[in-house]
Amino acid sequence: MSAENKPLVWLITGSSSGFGTSLTFIALRAGHKVIATSRNPSKTPELVKQIEGLGGIWLTLDVTESPEVLQKVVAEGTKKFGRIDVLANVAGMSIMGALEDFSPKEAQLIFDTNFFGPMKLTQAVLPQMRARKSGTIVNFSSGAGINPQVTMGMYAATKFALEGFSQGLVQEVAPFNIRVLIVQPGPFTTNMAIAGTFTEKEMDEEYYATAMGKFIDVFKGDPGEWKTPNDVEKGCQAVFEVVTRTGRGKGKEEHLRLLLSSEVAQRALDQNAKIKAGYDAFRDVWENTKHDGGVSKSYMDLQREKGLVQK
């Protein structure tokens, strides 16, 4: 059996809905092993039964818990299947509203869920992956991790943090043959996309008079009136292929980011264009910040000597 077809052991967070549910079923039906997790398995008994019927296990996991609690879940899953090959950090949440209206408690909750949870779980699985010299960390980001829309600033902040963490991580773990993949979905039909959650503090009328008011009104309206354009099942099938290096994912393992929809792909292009525009606009600044007369050996020279950057 080739490495691409070898059954993998997946630990998937947020398995009770959306991307987590779909990815869990796709992996199991392909013959892989899955440690499915959610905060309250008792709320989805039929789903738990289905997953276990396909050979998976379901564990209680709240990603906002302490590192010690998360490590115990990783240890329990590892004991069952012998290892964890793929950690898929799917669980997430969003709170919409003006940034000035966020309470410290609300900001902490969204960061605990979207950033610190994935960070702690990654730290928990990395030792065994390093020891085996193999493994994959999949972090679900968002189009907001490229360029946020109005009212999504705090959510975007958590995704920017996750993207930065992932981009740093990929360099640290590459020598151990551990892969890092950032998934950037965009608008998919999930519970989080349809059922909006808002700051406890009501947005000021001055904000409502801007584009922010129109954006909030969409999410406060009847979810039956609109539908996001992308299908979760199709998106998760793509994630599965990229992780397993099969189908459309074959030969593409050097790429860090998986753009999962045409909308998020366009946002990436637009953001890159803005970065290029800034590069051109401030050329007269960044070309003229070096010490007069130069220095005998710079920080970058030292990095080049050690092979840390390209010459």
TrEMBL record:
SUPFAM superfamilies: NAD(P)-binding Rossmann-fold domains. CDD domains: 17beta-HSD-like_SDR_c. InterPro entries: NAD(P)-bd_dom_sf, SDR_fam, SDR_oxidoreductase. It holds the Pfam family adh_short. Belongs to the short-chain dehydrogenases/reductases (SDR) family. PANTHER family: OXIDOREDUCTASE, PUTATIVE (AFU_ORTHOLOGUE AFUA_1G13950)-RELATED, SHORT CHAIN DEHYDROGENASE. This is Putative short chain oxidoreductase/dehydrogenase. It comes from Mollisia scopiformis (Conifer needle endophyte fungus). The lineage of its organism: Eukaryota, Fungi, Dikarya, Ascomycota, Pezizomycotina.
